[in-house]
Amino acid sequence: MEEERDKTGVNPNSRFHDLFTAVLGGFAAFLLATIKMQIDTTAVPYPFYKGPIIFPLIVLSIMVVSSLPAFYRLLIKPNPDASWYLDGKGAPKRPSVVLGLLILFFIFGITYIGVGGSCFLFLSLSLFYLKHRSIKTFIGFSILYTVLIVIVFKYLLDIWFPEPWILTLFGD
Which of 41, 49, 50, 53 maximizes the CB count within 10 A of its CB? Predict the structure, then answer.
């Protein structure tokens, strides 16, 4: 008997997806609850919104809020038609590649090419890999979101990012 799938090929009744999302949300909630123990804010002369804790607070809060529907479907009102079927044939390749690009550009890339370059390359390569290949889409959106992220984090919130290594090659 073939399992029901939506137009993207995903089984809408898979409980495995909810479990994975709930585990990520639970981990984010744990990190959010212990954030003061992980990030030293005692020596930071900046106001709260400019300090090193703001970005993790935003990201972890979004992760926790995004996982609430999965917790609800798993624990409070489970779907009787749901199964523990994992969609696809093996490992989820596309999300894994995008996660790899995210790690590459935002953990290592900010140090070497800066926040703007990292953001642009991550977005454009991810969109291109996910088959959004029109110039308007993968270059246009990448430029738009890069500009928005740089304006919000560097200029509006005045969050400090390290000087990229590539700029040190050209001198001060």
Answer: 53
- Residue ranges of domains in the chain: 11-89, 91-172
What string of H, E and C letters represents the secondary structure of the chain?
CCCCCCCCCCCCCEHHHHHHHHHHHHHHHHHHHCHHHHCCCCCCCCCHHHCCCHHHHHHHHHHHHHHHHHHHHHHHCCCCCCECCCCCCCCCHHHHHHHHHHHHHHHHHHHHHHHHHHHHHHHHHHHHHCCCCCHHHHHHHHHHHHHHHHHHHHHHCCCCCCCCHHHHHCCC
Mark the ranges of the chain whose per-residue pLDDT is less than 50: 1-2
Query: HSE of 43 in the Cβ direction (CA atoms, 13 Å)?
Result: 2
